[in-house]
Inverse folding.
């Protein structure tokens, strides 16, 4: 069983829409959580960390539900430039550097 | 001013050959990594080095041998290449081995024929 599972999509949404992605993790001992973004044929880049109380960065909101072992990412007012694959990432220990990646959810924002 | 660079960007080679991929970071980071992203886009860690010492070695065939001549470089040598080695290999670095943001290189696309 994979450490991190995501719906691969694709999600095709019009500009301005709100879209949400979920991801589930299998190990209840997981401690740190992140969303990375990967553009087509490019490297992954950190989008945001996910904190227990939930956190927001502009149009992006990340939430963590430890009881259900899932993480979500909400994107409001989608832009064409948001089109990318969004990777859910967990580590098993706080401060550990061994990242476990989901396979990613592909988003296309349509004009 | 590339932070993490890899060479070559593309590598096409025959089965059975030996090849190397080089990685350099100019961020002054202590920790470097190699990841493999397969055809299904699944990104999995292979190795991690901290200050030139191996700290993570996932289940990877021993045909893959990382080498870190100094903390700014982590090279990956692959012996006896197989078809299943075809993938994108990403190098990454982080300030330390304590879970900070990892910065990825642009990737090396390896195709084994």
């Amino acid at each position: 069983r994979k450490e991190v599972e995501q719906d691969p999509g694709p999600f095709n949404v019009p500009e301005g829409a709100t879209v949400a992605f979920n991801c589930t993790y299998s190990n209840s001992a997981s401690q740190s959580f992140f969303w990375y973004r990967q553009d087509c044929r490019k490297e992954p880049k950190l989008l945001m960390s996910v904190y227990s109380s939930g956190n927001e960065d502009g149009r992006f909101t990340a939430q963590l539900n430890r009881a259900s072992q899932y993480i979500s990412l909400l994107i409001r007012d989608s832009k064409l430039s948001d089109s990318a694959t969004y990777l859910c990432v967990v580590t098993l220990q706080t401060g550990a550097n061994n990242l476990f990646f989901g396979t990613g959810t592909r988003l296309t924002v349509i004009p | 001013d590339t932070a993490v660079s890899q060479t070559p960007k593309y590598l096409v080679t025959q089965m059975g050959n030996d090849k190397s991929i080089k990685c350099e970071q100019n961020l002054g980071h202590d920790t470097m990594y190699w990841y493999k992203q397969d055809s299904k886009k699944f990104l999995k860690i292979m190795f991690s080095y901290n200050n030139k010492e191996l700290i993570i070695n996932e289940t990877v065939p021993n045909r893959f041998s990382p080498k870190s001549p100094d903390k700014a470089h982590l090279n990956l040598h692959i012996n006896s290449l197989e078809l299943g080695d075809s993938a994108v290999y990403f190098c990454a670095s982080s300030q330390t081995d304590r879970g900070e943001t990892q910065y990825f290189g642009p990737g090396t696309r390896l195709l084994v024929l």
Summary: Chain A has a mean pLDDT of 91. The radius of gyration of chain A is 13 Å. The first strand of chain A starts at residue 4 and ends at 6. DSSP finds no helices and eleven strands in chain A.
